[in-house]
Design brief:
This protein is mainly beta. 3% of the residues lie in helices and 48% in strands. Keywords: Signal.
């Protein structure tokens, strides 16, 4: 029996304050970034799945460029009260895939100079600290008949990697998480 859940909107919102509508480069000094990261269950069939939202809050560009900011989220899958699935697969599909490093966990955003690194914070699916491969079906290592949690770290990054400036403007993006109970 195959049941699917579509988790959508690993929504990442970063707004960088600017006085005009066009994108402008920012230096290491001045300016703030308003950031929010959320994930929502869009369609759920039989087994509940939820995710925690992350709000980065107001962040200055120097902090963003330093790489000091990160968010944390937990994907919770509840198999209690139903027939235990044999396998559970998870597929992360970013709205703005990184053209060359998606398999390493990087995604882009509306802002071409701002992206995100999504990595594992536990070993439920991947290795702790490794990037979450985008567009690849992944399987939980151990399926339980109770609540299972997968912890993720979300870190804003400057694009291209190693860059020293960020264009002012929106850094919005999201990830659709597809879950199959097999």
């Amino acid at each position: 029996m195959l049941k699917s859940i579509l988790l959508t909107s690993l929504l990442i919102v970063i707004s960088i304050s600017s006085n005009g509508s066009e994108l402008k480069p920012a230096s290491l000094d001045g300016g703030t970034v308003q950031s929010q990261f959320s994930m929502n269950v869009r369609i759920a069939t039989c087994l509940p799945a939820t995710v925690d939202n992350v709000a980065f809050g107001s962040v200055d560009t120097a902090t963003l460029l330093s790489g000091e900011i990160e968010g944390h989220s937990t994907l919770s899958l509840d198999c209690s009260g139903t027939i235990k699935p044999q396998r559970i697969s998870v597929l992360f599909e970013p709205a703005t895939p990184h053209l060359t490093m998606g398999t390493s966990g990087y995604i882009g955003s509306k802002n071409s100079t701002l992206g995100y690194l999504i990595s594992w914070e536990d070993a439920q699916i991947g290795t702790i600290g490794d990037g979450v491969p985008m567009g690849k079906e992944l399987f939980l290592k151990k399926v339980d008949a109770s609540l299972m949690k997968v912890k993720l770290k979300i870190k804003p990054v400057v694009l291209p990697l190693g860059g020293q400036s960020i264009n002012l403007g929106s850094g919005n993006t999201h990830i659709t998480i597809k879950i199959k109970y097999i």
